[in-house]
Design brief:
heterodimer; A: alpha/beta; Immunoglobulin-like; Rossmann fold; 2 domains; 6-stranded parallel beta sheet; 5-stranded antiparallel beta sheet; elongated; B: mainly alpha; 3 domains; two-stranded antiparallel ribbon; 7 helices; 75% helix
Chain lengths: 361, 219
């Protein structure tokens, strides 16, 4: 009788239903286990997770604290597993009913990312639509971007002063979009320096970017019909280290005194060193980056700054190719959709804050 | 062909870059890792040889033509030779062809990095303080209404984070924090939306062969 009473006093309620299933949208080798909390969760030390391959012999594979009801197990694909959860206190341990069998397997589609794919299709649709109209001859209005309008004048200034133009691609790797955008702009700037017969200097921080930049400048000079004016040494590798690169460029700025500096690409802390040194030499400076932390430095120390998306639009803006301008228009409509969605979501969010309306709870 | 082949390569590898983002299956993920790690590494090795060749060529030319500060090019070439020898024989962290320690001093790239590169980079980094002071002076001259706004906002934030701020006004620290958290973050998010969309548009333009500036432009 005493034993029954003690058992009744110290007994714990077991965890509720245990669910084990193949982790969705993953590369396999994982099973997710979920359980309902024990009614005595407040007095528990936690939950122990047990696994069995034959449904009889269980081994402990993990521990979760009280209030937790989720565990992800590393498994072998194609093998069947059964799980049990034990509610554990200092003196007692009580097991749940075993879960059903679960088998892990790799998936062919990540469902969590389908919304991104959907958004890309909508956005890509806008771009295609406006490019189609551009191809048909429709002209699009693109707002003036002062920094890009100044490119021609900046190269012209260097020509008049008989000084070189310095193009700095930043520290980014070739796979970064800022570097790719900068390489596109380099192509257009190189065409202008080829036209005006102005010396172009392109120091690089990354070996692959260096090779690509060299090809781009060479192609641009050929395109303009001045392959003879191309100097292979004008595009060179300087240093991979951030501050060594900065020191090398400041040296070029003070020795060569370029009339125009382009600082376009990905930059980190060296941005201010470069921009301030360039400003001190009296060069006209056009900067552009998508590194938010560096934008204030460029805005302060440079004559013109391309902020974020302007950097990506630059190549189209300079080349004035209708197809590329159509793509920018599509980009703008993408922003309209996002802004409208945010606005509507904000209104809904605000309405839920007013209990009297209670429309969207 | 000269243009079509690179465009085809960009299209194929661009699509191959998107697919692993959506398909978690190991076959796709391992192929992606193989392209990114192994193939890109081989390309990078070739590019590195070209890059180092360019570096030496530029400096050798500088010495030959006795250009301004040509003496420093000797420093670079000597440093290049010395670090190459140390790297070859001492390895990255003492795992080279030969044991190259001298007492407690190990001749390897790690030693060079810790004793030369890091102090030099730190010195350059320290210069930032002076550059920042001069840039701040330039920014805060209040020549326009925007610059005045910047000056006022910066002044409020700086004062708001000082220990003395609460004795000026009990609401000043909270207001400074609000300036950072609300108007500042709102502006940054606006820029971030543009960056995200611009990045997608740029990628699409390049993958689909619409943007060809990297090929010298044109059709």
């Amino acid at each position: 009788m005493t034993l029954i009473l003690l058992t009744a006093i110290f007994a714990l309620a077991p965890p509720g239903e245990v669910r084990a299933y193949d982790t969705p949208s993953d590369g396999g080798e994982a099973i997710t286990i979920e359980w309902q909390l024990s009614q005595d969760d407040a007095v528990l030390d936690g939950y122990e997770i047990y696994r069995s391959e034959d449904g009889v012999n269980f081994e402990r594979i993990g521990l979760r604290g009280p209030g937790r009801q989720y565990f992800e197990d590393v498994t072998q694909d194609g093998k069947s597993y059964v799980y049990k959860i034990a509610a554990v206190s200092k003196t007692t341990k009580i097991f749940s009913q075993p879960s059903g069998e679960a088998i892990s397997s790799p998936q062919w589609i990540d469902r969590n990312k389908l919304n991104i794919l959907f958004a890309i299709f909508i956005f890509g649709g806008f771009i295609m639509y406006f490019m189609y109209h551009a191809r048909k001859g429709k002209e699009f209005f693109i707002r003036k971007i002062a920094g890009l309008q100044a490119v021609e004048d900046a190269v012209g200034r260097a020509t008049e002063m008989g000084k070189p133009t310095l193009y700095i691609l930043g520290l980014g790797y070739v796979e970064e979009v800022a570097t790719i955008a900068s390489l596109n702009i380099l192509g257009e700037v190189a065409k202008k320096t080829a036209q005006y017969n102005t010396k172009l200097i392109v120091p690089n921080a990354d070996p692959i970017v260096y090779v690509v930049a060299q090809e781009i400048v060479k192609e641009s000079y050929t395109k303009i019909g001045r392959p003879d004016a191309y100097d292979p040494d004008s595009v060179f590798f300087l240093a991979r280290e951030q501050m060594a690169y900065a020191a090398g460029i400041t040296g070029i700025m003070t020795r060569e005194k370029p009339a125009t500096n382009f600082l376009i690409g990905y930059f980190a802390a060296e941005s201010l060193v470069l921009a301030e040194t360039g400003a001190s030499t009296g060069a006209i400076q056009i900067a552009g980056t998508d590194a938010l932390a560096q934008l204030p430095f460029f805005i302060t120390a440079c004559d013109y700054t391309l902020i974020g998306e302007e950097l990506y639009a630059a190549s189209a803006y300079i080349s004035k190719q209708p197809l590329l301008l159509g793509a920018i228009k599509g980009e703008d409509w993408g922003k309209v959709v996002i802004a409208t969605t945010l606005f509507i979501a904000s209104i809904i969010g605000l309405l839920t804050k007013f209990p009297i309306l209670d429309l969207f709870e | 062909m000269k243009k079509k082949f690179p465009l085809l390569l960009v299209f194929v590898f661009g699509i191959l870059g998107i697919i692993p983002f959506l398909i978690p299956h190991p076959i796709v993920q391992h192929s992606d890792e193989y392209i990114r790690n192994d193939i890109l590494r081989i390309l990078a090795a070739f590019a590195l040889v070209l890059a180092l060749g360019s570096l030496l060529k530029v400096h050798a030319d500088k010495i030959k033509r006795k250009k301004v500060n040509w003496q420093y090019s000797w420093v670079l070439i000597l440093a290049f030779i010395v670090s190459s020898i140390i790297g070859l024989f001492g390895g990255v962290a003492g795992t080279g062809l030969l044991p190259t320690s001298f007492g407690s001093f190990n001749f390897n790239i790690q030693t060079l990095y810790e004793n030369i590169i890091i102090p030099l980079a730190s010195s350059m980094f320290a210069l930032l303080a002076f550059y920042m002071a001069s840039a701040s002076y330039r920014a805060f001259r209040a020549r326009s209404s925007e610059a005045t706004l910047l000056l006022v906002a910066a002044f409020v934030v700086m004062i708001g984070f000082l220990p003395v701020a609460s004795s000026i006004s009990s609401k000043l620290p909270a207001f400074a924090q609000w300036v950072l958290n609300v108007p500042n973050v709102a502006g940054q998010r606006g820029v971030l939306f543009g960056i995200a969309l611009g990045a997608v548009a740029t990628s699409l333009k390049i993958i689909l062969g619409i943007e060809r500036a990297w090929l010298g432009g044109g059709d």
